[in-house]
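Page 37, continued from 36.
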């Protein structure tokens, strides 16, 4: 995205969000496959960063399609899950490059970034246990704070890892990547002071996983596995 062009002419946060979404929807021959995109209010990003700096890792359950159990003849189904290990990392946000001499002058100097650039890696837990730092993340979220000061906006981009088989395939389905990104928000934006029991439970699970891992029970996590509700 041409930040200088955005700063030369007035753009609202809504207009920038629409441009960001349209750009990623045009990728992969107009299908948008392989990418996620979203825009986040600065206040929401600050809440995510505050929690993520305290609790930099977690696991998110991803519900797979229900599988019929051999033991049941009644037609009931039993859901299966895959756990994804989530890791946050923070980096100093690069300053916005100065425009070239051929560009129109900016009405004012671009504000220096004061918020960190964040990345979130999602790796299947089984693969992470097996290969640790050599494991391949299936989804990488990057949150860009370049427009945080000027527009109170942070842009999110998700990159799905291509499959070794090629042919436009990815290690993760598009809808599963969207659910993992939603799961990140549901747990890292959970308020432990709210009156809603489900939200308090998610905040407590995040705390226990990082502060008292021996007390963490993955069975409790499955109560919150339906990320669409």
């Amino acid at each position: 995205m041409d930040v200088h062009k955005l700063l030369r002419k007035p753009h609202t946060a809504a207009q920038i969000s629409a441009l960001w979404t349209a750009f990623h929807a045009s990728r992969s021959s107009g299908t948008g496959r392989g990418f996620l995109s979203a825009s986040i209010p600065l206040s929401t990003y600050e809440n995510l960063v505050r929690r993520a700096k305290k609790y930099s890792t977690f696991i998110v359950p991803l519900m797979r399609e229900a599988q019929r159990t051999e033991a049941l003849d009644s037609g009931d189904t039993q859901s299966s899950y895959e756990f994804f290990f989530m890791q946050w990392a923070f980096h100093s946000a690069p300053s916005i490059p100065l425009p070239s001499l051929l560009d129109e002058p900016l009405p004012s100097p671009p504000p220096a970034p004061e918020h960190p650039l964040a990345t979130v890696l999602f790796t299947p837990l089984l693969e992470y246990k097996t290969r640790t730092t050599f494991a391949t993340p299936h989804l990488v979220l990057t949150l860009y704070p370049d427009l945080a000061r000027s527009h109170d906006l942070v842009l999110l981009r998700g990159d799905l890892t291509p499959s070794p088989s090629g042919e436009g395939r990815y290690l993760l389905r598009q809808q599963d990547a969207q659910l993992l990104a939603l799961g990140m928000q549901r747990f890292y934006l959970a308020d432990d002071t709210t009156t809603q029991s489900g939200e308090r439970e998610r905040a407590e699970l995040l705390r226990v996983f990082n502060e008292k891992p021996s007390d963490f029970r993955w069975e409790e996590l499955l109560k919150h596995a339906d990320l669409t509700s």
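The radius of gyration is 20 Å. Flag for discussion at group meeting. Confidence is low (pLDDT under 50) at residues 67-74.
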